[in-house]
Amino acid sequence: MDKKLRINLDIVPKHVAVIMDGNGRWAKSKGMNRVFGHKNGLKAVRETLETAGELGVKFVTLYAFSTENWKRPKLEVDALMKLLVNSLKKELPTFQENKIKVNAIGNITSLPKRAQKTLLNVIEKTKENDSMTLTFALSYGSREEIVNTIKNISKKVVNKELEIENIDENIINNHLYTFNLPDVDLMIRTSGEKRISNFLLWQMAYAELYFTNVLWPDFRKEDFYDAIIEYQNRERRFGKTSEQITE
Ligand code: FPP
After folding, report:
1. Ligand 1 center–CA 65 separation, angstroms
2. How many Å lie between the centroid of ligand 1 and the Cα of residue 27?
3. Which residues contact 185 (CB under 8 A, 6 or more apart)?
4. Which of 36, 47, 99, 114 could cysteine-pair with 129, CB 3.0–4.6 Å?
5. pLDDT at 239 over 90
């Protein structure tokens, strides 16, 4: 049976976050260098976005570069940055045609100037698009984000713009890099690793976690369907009982 027919379009996750893992291993298995793996990861990015769009997923967040990734060899870091700049430039017409709004989370000012400039330009040009929000997590680490959030909230308290008693989950949400995004519903990680790796810790509090052995460059439409089908077969209770959910 066609996998797509098994998907209930009324309950697709609103926000899907992806840890695109396994590029290096994929390349190694082919006797190639790691950068070759990242380049081939782009096809999986395109296919994921197409499929998400087709199913009506409104928010897709991709873990493209973590705060820890700066420790990789300079050659690989430079290649990843170049890949980001070139892809953003190349895909801008596609973002416009498909009304995709591009967004970024992370310590963006730590990126090379050229990458920042291209990114900000694409964000500005796509800001009115409304069919899907595509967020790139770049130089992103969830703990760094939380530290940054605490600093910004503390400044407001010191400046008497905010009372300590009024700090609640909403205030924290509004100070995270993801202030304009809903909570994550489904997190997909490829390559068989079963970790969250400092990705959207606060935002994934109630997310369904889906792990697949497929390496990122091999991730295709059918694999995305599998993740959605699994998500739809799980019961999300948010702390309630099954009976309360079905009432
Ligand atoms: C993890 O695989 C992947 C990354 C650190 C980079 C992800 C980047 C891409 C898919 C390229 C597309 C980027 C854009 C423009 C959005 P890994 O290198 O950790 O693989 P390994 O675990 O097998 O070594």
Report:
1. 7
2. 11
3. 13, 14, 15, 16, 207, 208, 231
4. 99
5. no
List, in sequence order, every residue forming a beta bridge with 103; answer none if it has no partner.
Answer: 135
Q: How many domains does the chain have?
A: 1
Residue 184 domain-assigned (yes or no) = yes
- Which CATH number goes with the domain that contains 133? 3.40.1180.10
What is 154-181 written as a DSSP string?
A: HHHHHTTSS-GGG--HHHHHHHSTTTTS
| Residue ranges lining ligand 1, Cβ < 6 Å | 20-25, 34, 38, 41-42, 45, 62, 64, 69, 80, 83-84, 87, 136, 191, 216
Whether residue 227 lies inside any domain: the answer is yes
- pLDDT digits over 136-194, tens only? 999 999 999 999 999 999 999 999 999 999 999 999 999 999 999 999 999 999 999 99
Distance CA 123, CA 134 (A): 10
pLDDT tens string 50-67:
999 999 999 999 999 999
Does 173 participate in catalysis according to the annotation? no
Q: How many residues are recorded in the chain? A: 247
- Residue 41 CA to ligand 1 center (angstroms) comes to 7
Domain with 134 in it: 3-234
pLDDT, one tens digit per residue, over 204-232 is 999 999 999 999 999 999 999 999 999 99
| Set 23, 40, 69, 213: catalytic member | 69
- What angle, rounded to 10 degrees, do the helices at 74-97 and 34-55 form? 20
Kindly state whether residue 225 falls inside one of the protein's structural domains.
yes
| Domain assignment present for 113 | yes
| Residues β-bridged to residue 149 | none
Q: What is the mean pLDDT of the segment spanning 106-126? A: 97
